[in-house]
Amino acid sequence: MTTTDDAPTQGLPTEWMRLHPLSPVVRGARLLFALAIVVLPRQFTPGHRSQPWVDIIALFVALAAGIVSWLVTRWRIHNGELQVETGLIRRDSVRVPLTRLQAVDIVRPFAGRVLGLAEVRVVVAGHGSSTARLTYVTDEQATLIRARLLALAHGLAVDTPAPAEAPVLAVSGGRIAASQALGAPAVIVALVLAVVVVLAALAPAAATASAVSFGFAVCFVVVSGAVRRASAEWEFRLSAAPDGLRLSAGLLQTRAETIPFGRVQAVRWVQPVLWRMFGWVRLEVDLARRHGRDRASRETAATTRALLPVGSPAEAARLLALVLPGASVTLPPQVLASARAPRRARWRAPFARHFLRAWHDDHYMVCGSGRLRPEFVVVPLQKAQSIRWSQGPVQRWLNLADVFVDSAGVHFPGRARMRDAAEAQQWAGLLPDIARSARGGTPLPASDTGGAVGLA
């Protein structure tokens, strides 16, 4: 099945080819490990030694499933597209135009690192990272494929090396672990222990035992989540390159990702309560990706959002200015009085009202909230896809409204809470013109539909 491409693809296959022969081992490593935990103890248990064939069949089925998946998966470069076909009963064929390619990420799971294999994930505009994945190729092939796909996507010679990167910052694994230990898990575990102690002193023994069991389950879930995040962000490195910001991190599974310039839909600045004593903040980005239902997409969503897992406000401000030039979470003096929510908002949000603030300029909308966990969300107005305002029944009685700036991101949209209703309607009419001006388009008259304003 030989093909002829529109452009030379030296080093990339123009004929259908399979992935690395050891791919089934890496793909099924977690399942094989789980089966081994169950199988090995059984072999040393009296009464099960005479039936080893059951365990052998289970291991054989797991390995055979990986081999079949490898046999029915093939890929090539043809007519300016990365083409991937897979599936035995249900055949899937993916065509990724290289002209729409946004980034190429390299993921190395623990089993892949042991065997010298890596996964190549192609991120395309308007699609999630699960659109095209090559699982797995050798480390050398992964680096070569990434460089040459990026060269083809940018119209360069196929043998053009990957653009150099300049280190921006690094966060040690020790600081990552400390920040997770002092985050939400520490607060939740402390609260659970306090409840258990109170019940032990006041409640019957049966109620105390139930509380201890429930508290242990809650603590296990919370702590395991913190451990997963710390492992994913371990030894975090951030570099700048012509194609965007490059992130690399990971303890057992390492990940090298690229955040293309212009793909950031919003930035969130967060400072958990226990971080204040150290002056730490966290900076997260919301990207224009459609997160699918598969496990790989959820992993990507969980790890690429941290632009700064933990660092000083100065480092966070520097990175914020790098991805959103001119943006700041410092309240400008000229809007100091008008940025806060009206006093009557205390009847709707008695504890949060003092910390609600929002303002905008010609490029960004900034929304602040949170007492124990202050956070600011910065949304570029040029990324706005719709701008709307809404009122609940209590807000209508208090003459308040919320203003939303929706973008292609899905994690933290801009939401200016508890604004004066007249101001909210004014923003809903003014911000679309500002957004179009920020995009360089021709200003159009604002819609007078009242509730939402769409941006063409």
Could you explain the architecture of this structure?
With 456 residues, the protein is α+β, with helices and mostly antiparallel strands. The chain has 3 domains: 23-153, PH-domain like (Roll); 166-322, no CATH class; 331-454, PH-domain like. It is 35% helix and 27% strand. It has 12 helices and 20 strands. Helix 6 packs antiparallel against helix 8. The protein is globular, with a radius of gyration of 26 Å.
The end-to-end span amounts to: 44 Å
The number of distinct helices, counting runs of at least 4 residues, comes to: 12
* Total domain modules: 3
**Biggest β-sheet description:** 7 strands, antiparallel
Low-pLDDT windows of residues: 1-8, 290-304, 442-456
Short description:
The longest helix has 28 residues, at 205-232. Helices cover 35% and strands 27% of the residues.
